[in-house]
Amino acid sequence: MAAEAGNPAVGGGPGGIRAADADRDRVAGILGTAYSEGRLSKDEYDARLEAALSARTYADLDQIVTDLPVRADVARAAARPAVAAPVARTNGFAVASLACGLGQFVVGPLATVPAIVFGHLARSQIRRTGEQGAGVALAGLVLGWGAVIVGVIFILIAAALAMSGMHAGMQMP
Asked: Phi, psi at residue 19, to the nearest 5°?
């Protein structure tokens, strides 16, 4: 169960990396299995369990289970740090959609159409690729379409006021 070359060399070597509680728990599980199979006596199990729970590094954990015939994949998992799952990247069109949606407040309606187009492109790509950013794209779309709706309402109000002004001008003798 020696440390592998793929582990990062932090703290003087792969075995010098500090172990986490989850790593100590995995080793305790290996010891429990070995005890239930009759590979360890009660005293040896107790001593190794105490050592596992107080282990500081992966090298310490490695020494506790090195003579036990455990499955190689379980032993390697217990002797190396857990690797975080890669985070899916955020779709670029989603970010562009939100930026254009917010940009409307600075540059006016010039950014409205790009906010809507980028938002729809982003949502289409996100469904295909599984990237992050669906909420960001939706926010850009809401801002873009919101500006369109506000613009249409403004135009309708302006037209109604213009019509009422023209109508009032015609009635005056």
From this structure: -85, 150
Report residue 1's pLDDT band, with 50, 70 and 90 as the boundaries. Answer: very low
Give me the torsion for CA of 149, 153, 159, 161, rounded to 10°.
Answer: -160
Report the alpha-carbon distance of residue 39 to residue 30 in Å, rounded: 11
DSSP helix/strand/coil, 82: coil
What is d(CA 104, CA 111) in angstroms, rounded to the nearest whole number?
5
**Taking residues 18-26, what's their average pLDDT?**
87
- Nearest one of 139, 92, 136, 141 to 115, comparing CA atoms: 141
As given in the structure block, the two tokens for residue 33 are 């299995």
- Residue located via tokens 């850009």: 140
Closest CA to 112 of 159, 155, 152: 152
Distance between CA atoms of 163 and 153, rounded to whole angstroms?
15
Question: Does the global pTM surpass 0.90?
Answer: no
Q: Rounded CA gap, 10 and 50, in Å?
A: 25
Report H helices in the chain: 21-36, 42-53, 58-65, 72-78, 92-107, 112-129, 134-171
